[in-house]
Amino acid sequence: MNGIRIATTLVKKRKEKNITQEELAHYMGVSKASVSKWETGASYPDIAFLPQLATYFDISIDELMDYQPQMTKEEIRALYHTFTDQVTERPFEDILEDCRETVRKYYACYPLLLQMGLFLFNNQSLISDQEKRIDLVQEAQALFERVQAETNDAALAQLALKLNASCCMALGDPDGALVLLESLINEVQMPPELIASAAYQMKGDVLAAKRIMQVGIFQGLVVYFNYVMNYLTMVADDTEAFSETVKRAQTVAELYDLRHLHPFFQLGLDLTCANAYALRGEQGRCLDALEKFTDEFVRNTTPLDLHGDAYFNLIDSWLAGLDNGTQLPRNTALVTEGLVDAVLQNPAFAGLTDKKRYRTLCVKLEKLKAD
């Protein structure tokens, strides 16, 4: 972790002033070796020297120290996963206080602020009080807004904007979400993977070009199933559109062996289909989908974490380099519990309680939840 950046300031200001380390040392009444250690970060100037240094360079002491505590990507990831792992072990309010203390200490570390906002947003369901849950979402939104306004990283700012829009939706503000997203949804974007892959090919690095293309296909697959699961609910009352969407989605899922590649999305697809069938009053197909969901969930031996497979054999290093690595952004036990409760506590399935097939799969899911 890096906080005080006086070494960088001294080098920058000394070169701007066009003086040598010896000249600065003479002015300060110290040895050249001392100045050298200050500029390499091997040691800090004595606190009594700070006003004199600041005056010499005509800057404030705050500017001289450039105190902007930062955390590395690896440190942020480790902290996020520590908090995530603790949600089943510690009182959530205690974890929130640790999160807030970290934010206060590293308020200028924008990648950290985004991840802490994401942690708050992803775990809002752990708060039963509706007013406190709204407060938590607003707290996350404030962090995303700060990142948007202050970061010089365009990609980070865009991600913060999207997360801000998600907060708007969680707060029942669709107009706010649309205003934020207007500039993004009205422009045709060239996927960067296409350009990057071509650039690697031009450099003669065919392996890197292939890896980038696999990354693009994998991300496209994830985006596709996010779209499909939302669209299925929207067209549940349109028999033709619904049936065609289910058929195409299941075909793609089988082609890419989604059950092993990304079981979380396969389970999500089965559950979405079951919900839609329930809305359509097709109890037989609803039970088919729920049984498929349950059987796959119970016998699943593939981690819910992100990973490649025999086809996507070049993406593991990319996945490992993501902000949160290969782990899910929420505690795995809570994700499992949430998926089970999406069946056991879903009012859409209330009409199935007298069906033996439904009671049987509920027993299996209750056991999975207990284990």
What do these coordinates show?
It is a single chain. The chain is mostly helical and about 375 residues long. It folds into three domains: about 5-65, 434 Repressor (Amino-terminal Domain); about 75-185, Alpha Horseshoe (Serine Threonine Protein Phosphatase 5, Tetratricopeptide repeat); about 190-370, no CATH class. It is about 70% helix and about 0% strand. It is built from 20 helices and no strands. Helix 10 (about 155-170) runs antiparallel to helix 11 (about 175-185). The longest helix has 29 residues, at about 205-235. The radius of gyration is 26 Å and the shape is elongated.
Q: Brief description of this entry?
A:
This protein has 371 residues and is mainly alpha-helical.
Class computed from helices, strands and strand pairing: mainly alpha
State Rg: 26 Å
Binned strand content: under 5%
Q: What is the count of helical runs?
A: 20
Would you identify the regions where 5 or more consecutive residues have pLDDT less than 50?
none
How many β strands by DSSP? Answer: 0
Give the topology.
Elements: H1 6-17, H2 21-28, H3 32-40, H4 50-56, H5 61-65, H6 73-86, H7 92-105, H8 110-122, H9 130-150, H10 154-170, H11 174-185, H12 192-203, H13 206-234, H14 239-255, H15 258-261, H16 263-280, H17 283-299, H18 316-320, H19 332-344, H20 356-370
Helix pairs in contact: 2-3, 6-8, 7-8, 8-9, 8-10, 9-10, 10-11, 12-13, 13-14, 13-16, 16-17, 17-20, 19-20
